[in-house]
Amino acid sequence: MPMHAEDIVRLIQEGIPGAEVEIQDLAGDGDHYAATVISAVFAGKSKIQQHQMVYGALGGRMGGVLHALKLTTMAQRP
Amino acid sequence: MSEPQVFERIRDEIGKNDVLLFMKGTPVFPQCGFSAAVVDVLSQLGVKFHGVNILVDPELRQGIKEFSQWPTIPQLYVKGEFVGGCDIVREMFETGELEQVMKEKGVALATAA
After folding, report:
1. Residues of chain A neighbouring B72 (CB-CB closer than 8 A)
2. Mind listing the pLDDT tens digit of every residue in chain B (113 residues)?
3. Given A22, A31, A50, A57, which is the most exposed site by the fewest CB atoms within 10 A?
4. Which domain holds residue B77?
5. Residue B112 lies in a domain
6. B1 within domain boundaries
7. Closest residue, chain A, to B69 (C-alpha)
8. What is the CATH number of the domain that holds B24?
9. Residue A25: is it exposed, middle or buried by C-beta count within 10 angstroms (0-12/13-18/19+)?
10. CATH fold of A5-74, please?
11. Is the CB of B84 less than 8 angstroms away from the CB of A68?
12. Helices and strands (DSSP H and E) totals, chain B
């Protein structure tokens, strides 16, 4: 079952309070998204740790109901 | 809590192969766009790697996600260290960081000059 973009944003922001989340529905099918997550908590963390934090916020949905989420994380806007 | 038996196999594979890609399909015939993208990056870098097809091994497919604490496939390991999945590997390739990591870890690159 596909996920709604708003649900993905809500889950990420619940898990990482204050995060800015931009989301794009890549294929228009509610199943292939790209997300950019910007949060100061990422500062000083490796990319792997940053992505793991987002996956953690999604609570096991990644790789399950959420098939494809192209993820970009950054500590501040470029 | 005892760890899953499959972790032993995963460690063995990681120990045996300097550059190891857990993927869907094989390097010659990837069966997922994300796995294909990482194969493409490694080929462009001229890195020799070993591919493990998790589609034919359900135990490994679940086990590697827990082992790396990473929910998706592909997963790239270099000299025993988890480097990342498709997005990170692609991003590192574009910034030149991946080539640097390979060099720092002493992995041979056969990039055309």
Report:
1. 62-63
2. 578 899 999 999 999 999 999 999 999 999 999 999 999 999 999 999 999 999 999 999 999 999 998 999 999 999 999 999 999 999 999 999 999 999 999 999 885 54
3. A22
4. 6-104
5. no
6. no
7. A52
8. 3.40.30.10
9. middle
10. GMP Synthetase; Chain A, domain 3 (3.30.300)
11. no
12. 5, 4
